[in-house]
Amino acid sequence: MRVTLVFSTKGQRYLRVGLAVPLIGSISCLRAMVAEEGKTMPDQVVLSELYATGFQRSFSDDDDLTSIAESDVVYAFQAPPLHTRGGSTRISGFHHSLPSSPYTSGPEGKRIPPSTTLSSEFLNHGGSTKVLLVICNTAGSGQQAVR
């Protein structure tokens, strides 16, 4: 499986990696593998599927690896480290601001794991680190496509 890791620092923009993922496993395993390749922490990795037409879905730790096809375009975005007042962090892999995977939606179309962390909690409130992630979808095709 090929994954493009997009770093939050200016020093290194992105890294494309090819990973030999297990046939049976969860997305949390993929997050750990991507984090190891990028020399970052797994709780800083947000996995999403993107195409030229825009954002498709994000992945939760509980999602099965078989929900990702070989042809899917997977990006891993590095979020800034999570800082909390107590010094502990919660590992999530799923953000309220991103739609859940269509393969794991619940009765109301959303499935939010109990360990969910708000995406705003990944912002470094004490420093000057800024992260801007713009995801733009297109409507239509060809010359009639609009963003």
The CATH superfamily is Phosphatidylinositol 3-kinase Catalytic Subunit, Chain A, domain 1
Order of helices and strands: EEHEEE
Beta percentage is 15-25%
Shape by Cα distribution: globular
Major pleated sheet: 5 strands, mixed
Computed Rg: 16 Å
Question: What is the total tally of β strands?
Answer: 5
Report the average pLDDT across residues. Answer: 72
The CATH architecture designation is Roll
The number of domains is 1
Counting copies of identical and different chains, the oligomeric state is single chain
| Highest-level CATH class | Alpha Beta
Strands side by side in the biggest sheet: 2-1-5-3-4
- What structural class do you assign from the helix and strand content? mainly beta
Distance between the termini: 29 Å
Level of helix content?
Answer: under 10%
Instruction: Catalogue the unreliable spans.
Output: 87-124
User: How large is the count of helical segments?
Assistant: 1
CATH topology group: Ubiquitin-like (UB roll)
Keywords: Membrane, Transmembrane, Transmembrane helix
Region (Disordered): 89-116
Transmembrane segments: 14-34
